[in-house]
Write a structure and sequence with these properties.
- By secondary structure, the chain is α/β, with parallel strands linked by helices.
- It folds into 2 domains: about 190 residues, Glycogen Phosphorylase B (Rossmann fold, 3-Layer(aba) Sandwich); about 160 residues, Glycogen Phosphorylase B (Rossmann fold), CATH 3.40.50.2000.
- It is about 40% helix and about 15% strand.
- It is built from 15 helices and 13 strands.
- The strands form 2 sheets. Strands 3-2-1-4-5-6-7 form a 7-stranded parallel beta sheet, with helices on both faces. A 6-stranded parallel beta sheet has the order 10-9-8-11-12-13, with helices on both faces.
- The longest helix has 17 residues.
- The chain is elongated and about 65 Å long.
- The protein starts with about 45 loop residues before the first strand and ends with a helix.
């Protein structure tokens, strides 16, 4: 990170959410084939249900790590599906992965959606079988289609349950689960459509590897400017990423935006771009076509080092990215994914703009407007420092530990 762009500010904390009503599952006798049991008084074993994207999986891993810190002897395993990357992420984090064979409903074709809905009773039986074999004392869902069946069945079996809600607008799974779980941990102070009495505002848990460290420089630091020259202490380090899945719009339009800058302006910028799975080759081609030198990678395993390296981020406005931006105290240009459920990414971005931590840029404006924003920030580095300070003030660096302790105290 260059010396020109530095951060220095105190932490800030908020209270508890005041929210509204929630949708509900059918009555407890909906699954007569599932037997119930009394919850144990002490939590010795926890199952996490997390799947789909890093936005669901990484917060769960963060809480699991924190539980191990608070209670080293606790046994933890993760339940997930085969369709996403969760098995790789979970096992890389050192946890056992249990497969629950199911398919998603939201976003599927009509035929596939009908097929998957008809398969739900069978999925519930599989979830019940996992719970019977594992005998957890607590089941925690972090959103996504895989958490629904496991947490719902756990609730029917009178096992202690909790959910993590990362977004300002909850997803369908968590809305359905909310009235049947013991606790709901929310990441935004104002989170809609959840029963307020169960909500605890502690922030979005962030992996310990993402929290600021003094020795977090990348193993292979990239210090070559967009014009192919050696960077200096005044260079702007620009980190571009679209979440764990990547973002084609950023992959195609960021190179276009940078091509609008002059050679002198490009000589002041160093770019590291995470393209996403199966998107690396096309991203590299986009930059090459514009004769711009950057570092491109498919996926960044050590995001802590990447945040430490960067001065400015260009990324989507997913809840996990927001939490990591705050925890790492980085200035950001947020490009909300326009097709996110209930437009929750734009609401996430608006919350960051409101506290002065980010600039919002709409999806269709990246190619045309990003270059002007970057040029303005290079000319006025104090704006970056102001955003860094605002992000730091709103950070919840202890969210993982706080949530872990709360979960272990569920009675």
């Amino acid at each position: 990170m260059s010396k020109q762009f530095a951060e220095n500010s105190p932490h800030h904390a908020f209270g508890i959410n005041h929210s509204s009503s929630a949708e509900s599952f059918p009555a407890d006798n909906f699954c007569p084939f599932i037997s119930t049991k009394s919850a144990m008084s002490e939590i010795r074993k926890v199952l996490f249900a997390a799947g789909g994207t890093g936005g669901h999986v990484f917060p769960a891993i963060a809480v699991a790590d924190a539980m191990k810190t608070v209670k080293p002897e606790i046994e933890i395993a993760f339940v997930g599906a085969a369709h996403g990357n969760e098995s790789n992420w979970v096992q890389k984090a050192g946890y056992r992965f249990i497969l629950l064979d199911l398919d998603f409903i939201k976003g599927a074709s009509l035929g596939r959606k009908i097929k998957n809905i008809l398969a739900l009773p069978g999925v519930a039986k599989k979830a019940a079988a996992i719970l019977e074999e594992e005998k957890p004392d607590l089941v925690i869902g972090s959103g996504g289609y895989v958490s629904g069946p496991l947490v719902a069945v756990a609730s029917w079996k009178k096992i202690k349950t909790a959910i993590l809600e990362q977004n300002a607008i909850p997803g369908l799974t968590n809305r359905l689960l909310s009235r049947h779980v013991d606790k709901i941990f929310i990441s935004f102070e104002h989170t809609d459509k959840l029963p307020q009495k169960k909500c605890i505002y502690l922030g979005n848990p962030v992996r310990s590897t993402v929290l600021p460290k003094t020795d977090a420089a990348p193993a292979e630091p990239w210090e070559t400017t967009c014009t192919g020259e050696q960077a200096d202490a005044s260079s702007l380090h620009l980190l571009v990423f679209g979440g764990s899945q990547g973002a084609m719009k950023l992959n195609t339009d960021v190179p276009i935006a940078l091509s609008k800058l002059t050679k002198d302006q490009l000589s002041k910028i160093v770019v590291w771009h995470q393209a996403g799975k199966n998107k690396l080759e096309e991203t590299e081609k986009s930059y090459k076509n514009h004769n711009i030198t950057v570092k491109t990678t498919e996926f960044i395993d050590d995001m802590g080092a990447a945040y430490h390296w960067a001065n400015l981020l260009v990324c989507r406005a997913g809840a996990t990215s927001i939490a990591e931006i705050k925890a790492s105290s980085r200035a950001s240009i947020l490009v909300p994914f326009p097709f996110a459920a209930h437009n929750h990414q734009e609401k996430n971005a608006d919350a960051m703009v409101e506290i002065g931590a980010s600039i919002k840029l709409m999806n269709d404006d990246v190619g045309e407007k990003l270059s002007n924003i970057i040029n303005d920030l290079i000319a006025n580095p104090s704006k970056i420092s102001d955003m860094e300070q605002a992000a730091f003030k709103d950070a919840k660096p202890n969210a993982s530990i706080d949530i872990a302790k709360n979960c272990l105290e569920i009675s």
